[in-house]
Design goal:
The strands form 8 sheets. The protein has a 7-stranded parallel sheet with strand order 10-11-9-12-13-6-14, with helices on both faces. Strands 15-26-25-16-23-21 form a 6-stranded parallel sheet, sandwiched between helices. The chain has a 5-stranded antiparallel sheet with strand order 2-1-4-3-5, with no helix packed on it. The two termini are about 50 Å apart. About 30% of the residues lie in helices and about 20% in strands. It is α/β, with parallel strands linked by helices and about 675 residues long. Helix 1 crosses helix 2, helix 1 crosses helix 8 and helix 3 packs parallel to helix 7.
Length: about 675
């Protein structure tokens, strides 16, 4: 209980960088009992009766300000929603990224829901009256496929692991099929909870989250699991947050779950850390992997990076000895067939862009030809839609909108082409190069592929799964499933054949991570195949094809890392992008001591009259660079701009956007 007259240190809920520090307030006598560290409060800020919200983080020591302090206006809620370990994490990450701690707290602490909170407080009071919480009585489950208690003991010792997931499906006691990775992580998390510890598991999207939740439901009681999902309603999210505050829990969710409160953290796991959905789009843009690394360093417990493939960032951690490489007891690799992208002899196969080898595998799985068992066939394609890109049928130039110059595409058979930017229908279109008025398809999307396969296999069900038509699961009967990358449904018992098309087109993307991304897309799809079922990769060979076929993902990541070191690109070094008006960017760059930097790239135009400069520096210099850049950000935010002649009023400082470890640069 707080004593009267104590000095409370408050962090104000504001995105302004100049307010990112403690404010001291006096705790009035009437609020002494409620004002405890972690609660939400309202405090006066400056003059004119302005009231701001914030969190009471701690009480000042003996060296507190001895003058007259403003009192706390009110305590919004008696629930201490900001745990000390979460505040320490937010402060450390903000300092590392030249951001504000409050931006992290907005991700960590959901908005208050009064009804949910009152119901939770009533249950807490009833539990205390009944004698407190009940300790877990669940027997710690065993992980399969990694040796006798190899993973369990490593997690109990708090080790940091790079876990090679087993690429296959597993069947739960209720008959549901999920990825074996979900069973492994659920088992490790349930083991932590059985020992009276919390576990946090972060996954990229809702498909992965549903698999993990199903695996946990089979081995852990419902009250042990708290799900924090970005798609949840505000009351459901706050309810899960309060559950995590109630004692040891298994907290699962998307990227922001890494900030969840966790009593006695036993394990923090991240699945598929190279998925771009783990990159936080909000300031200060901290990646899930980086947040997990910092939290494990601060709070202890085990850290697990799991995936079918290995990210270059995790491989760097393995190489420097910070993370230990762990794989299955016995190597488990899908049956991968590499084939050239040569037209098939069958006309229907040519229309569907499927080479002979892949066509034969699909036909055997669908019709039962040869020794293959019949069942569903997965066909992964690179683009959604019907015909995403069109061109002039005469000269071959890309078809552009006559209104805004955007690319034209076709959403379905017989539809009028439309612009991908402004949505305008291309009625009366003519080519600006040759005046021709007819189109031809340049790229074929999932919709057109599904249409051609339906003609090739009459009577076989064709299922389309993409962002607009999500499908979670399919049965074990014969069917053709055409899916875009990342949208593949799970088939009962696994797919009898997996065809990976558009490999060359995927690799043509201008991105330093393109090979790593393709390897992840293909490996995640291959893991959905039934045991012994063929996975056919079309049009890809060389080192990337061999790595996929042999499962030598760590070696491939190590080679990629070596290439990054030669180019001095992340993760071999760190970088920070600074975007804004040219003079503002120049001031921010000049604020950093050149001795801290490897070099400065730019400034280069970045649209809308802005420029961007890129700072490259070693990991050891990261903290000093962040301090200098943040100081420049605060100076820019506090500048008053002179109003134009003849006009009065305040002009805000120009925007300065700072992003450390910016993935868009790669």
């Amino acid at each position: 209980m707080a004593a009267t007259g104590r000095v409370a240190r408050i962090v104000i809920d504001s995105a302004l960088p100049q307010l990112d520090h403690f404010f001291d307030y006096r705790v009035p006598d009437e609020l002494a009992a409620e004002a405890v560290p972690g609660v939400r409060v309202k405090v006066p800020l400056r003059t004119a009766g302005r009231i701001a919200e914030g969190y009471l983080v701690e009480f000042a020591g003996d060296d507190a300000f001895e003058g007259t302090l403003s009192p706390i206006e009110s305590v919004v809620s008696p629930v201490p929603v900001l745990r000390p370990e979460v505040w320490t994490l937010a402060r450390r990450l903000a300092d590392r990224s030249a951001g504000t701690a409050n931006d992290i707290l907005r991700l960590a602490v959901p908005g208050r829901q009064v009804r949910v909170e009152k119901a939770w407080l009533a249950r807490q009071e009833a539990a205390e009256t009944a004698g407190g919480s009940v300790s877990p009585s669940v027997v710690e489950p065993a992980v399969r496929g990694y040796g006798d208690r190899v993973l369990e003991d490593a997690v109990s010792r708090g080790e940091r692991l790079a876990l090679q997931a087993i690429p296959r499906l597993g069947r739960l006691p209720g008959g549901e099929w999920v990825g074996e990775w979900a069973v492994t992580l659920a088992t490790l998390a349930a083991g932590c909870w059985a020992r009276g510890e919390s576990a946090i598991v972060a996954v990229p999207d809702y498909r992965d989250l549903d698999q993990l939740a199903a695996a946990l439901a089979a081995i852990a009681p419902a009250e042990a699991v708290a799900r924090a999902d970005a798609s949840q309603s505000n009351p459901d999210r706050y309810r899960a947050f309060l559950a995590a505050l109630s004692g040891p829990r298994i907290v699962i969710g998307n990227r922001s779950v890494v900030y969840a409160p966790a009593e006695r953290l036993g394990m923090l796991a991240v699945w598929d850390d190279s998925d771009p959905l783990h990159a936080e789009p909000l300031s200060p843009y901290v990646h899930t992997r980086d947040a997990a690394l910092v939290r494990q360093e601060l709070q202890g417990g085990a850290l697990v990076f799991a995936g079918h493939t290995r990210s270059v960032e995790v491989q760097r951690l393995v190489d420097i000895g910070w993370v230990t490489d762990v794989g299955p007891e016995r190597a488990v690799n899908p049956k991968v067939i590499l084939t050239a992208n040569q037209p098939a002899a069958e006309p229907v196969a040519r229309a569907a862009r499927i080479p002979s080898t892949a066509w034969q595998a699909a036909r055997a799985a669908l019709t039962g030809d040869g020794s293959a068992a019949t069942g569903p066939v997965l066909i992964q394609v690179g683009r959604p839609g019907y015909a995403p890109v069109l061109a002039c049928a005469k000269c071959g130039q890309a078809a552009r909108c006559n209104r805004c110059e955007g690319p034209l595409g076709q959403s379905r058979a017989g539809a009028v082409p439309s612009c991908g930017w402004c949505g305008a229908l291309a009625t009366g279109w003519h080519c600006e190069h040759c005046e021709h008025d007819r189109f031809r398809m340049v790229t074929v999307g999932a919709g057109r592929t599904a249409e051609e396969l339906g003609r090739a296999f009459p009577g076989v069900r064709v299922i389309l799964s993409d962002g607009e038509h999500p499908v979670q699961t399919v049965g074990e009967s014969a069917a053709i499933v055409v899916a875009t990358r990342g949208a593949e449904p799970i088939a009962a018992g696994g797919y009898r054949a997996v065809l990976l098309l558009d490999g060359e087109r995927m690799l043509a993307r201008e991105n330093l991570r393109v090979a790593e991304d393709c390897l992840r897309w293909w490996s995640n799809a291959a893991a959905l195949a039934a045991p012994g079922a063929p996975t056919v990769l079309v049009g890809v060979s060389g080192a990337l094809g061999r790595a996929f076929a042999t499962g030598r993902f760590a070696e491939f990541a190590r080679a990629e890392l070596a290439g990054r070191r030669e180019l001095r690109f992340p993760p071999a070094v760190r970088l920070a992008s600074i975007t804004g008006a040219a003079d503002v960017v120049q001031e921010a760059v000049e604020a950093v001591d050149p001795a801290l930097l490897i070099d400065v790239l730019g400034p280069a135009p970045h649209g809308d009259g802005l420029v961007r400069s890129i700072l490259r520096f070693d990991y050891a210099k990261g903290q000093e660079v962040a301090i200098a850049v943040r100081a420049a950000t605060v100076r820019n935010a506090t500048k008053r701009r002179r109003a134009p002649a003849g006009k009065t009023g305040f002009r805000p400082a120009p925007t300065l956007r700072v992003r450390f470890d910016d993935p868009d640069i790669l």
